[in-house]
Design a protein that fits this description.
Number of helices: 9
Distance between the termini: 135 Å
Radius of gyration: 57 Å
Strand content: under 5%
Helix content: over 70%
Structural class: mainly alpha
Mean pLDDT: 80
Strand order of the largest sheet: 1-2
């Protein structure tokens, strides 16, 4: 029997504590402040009564909207609501700033990546252009070699046509029998050693002379 009574007492105590906790939760903070700080029981707080509360003392004039030098429960509740709204607005503003920072960071990263890709593309284009130029130079050199070779073959053919005895020398008689009027007319001038024959060396010197004169005229 005693044990049952003891357990009942413990259960009742727990129930009372739960009710007190629920009551505290449902009781607003301004009401609790009035109960704690209102020394004369006039349901309002004077500046003298708020000496122990530094925050309320610091913002007394701001909270006292009717300027009666007392803080009522409605004024305390309005101040509390205003503080909540300020906190909410600051939180929203912080979130907006964070979002803007993230957006700016993403834009910077996008611009950086775009510039990186552009630089990469430019390097690739320069590389391709350089390769194209090198290939063109190779083609031009190959064409020039072909032209030089063709000219040399043509000169060789002309020389063989004129050099009827195949001694690699052109006599005056062989020159006169050919169709090369310039060779016939300038034979003595081309035959620089005056041996009566034009050698391949003398023909080469003639071509170099003509080339130099043409270059001089162009300049």
């Amino acid at each position: 029997m005693k044990k049952s009574v003891f357990l009942f007492a413990i259960g009742l105590s727990c129930f009372n504590l739960t009710l007190q906790a629920q009551e505290q939760k449902t009781t607003s903070k301004p009401t609790i402040l009035l109960e704690e700080l209102d020394e004369n029981g006039d349901q309002k707080l004077s500046k003298e009564e708020l000496k122990a509360n530094a925050r309320l003392s610091r913002h007394f004039e701001e909270i006292d909207t009717n300027e009666d030098r007392y803080l009522s429960e409605d004024e305390l509740r309005a101040a509390r609501q205003k503080r909540k709204e300020l906190h909410t607005n600051r939180k929203k503003l912080t979130q907006i700033r964070d979002e803007k920072r993230k957006q700016l960071q993403a834009e910077r990263e996008e611009v950086t990546e775009r510039r990186k890709q552009q630089r990469k593309q430019v390097r690739q284009q320069r590389k391709e252009l350089a390769a194209t130029r090198i290939e063109k130079r190779k083609q031009m050199r190959a064409e020039q070699r072909k032209i030089i070779k063709a000219r040399a073959q043509k000169r060789q053919a002309q020389l063989l046509e004129i050099d009827t005895n195949n001694d690699h020398l052109i006599s005056k008689e062989e020159a006169e029998k050919s169709t090369q009027q310039g060779l016939i007319k300038n034979f003595d001038e081309i035959d620089t050693n005056n041996d009566g024959y034009i050698s391949p060396k003398e023909l080469k010197a003639l071509r170099a002379k003509v080339k130099a004169e043409r270059k001089k005229q162009k300049a």
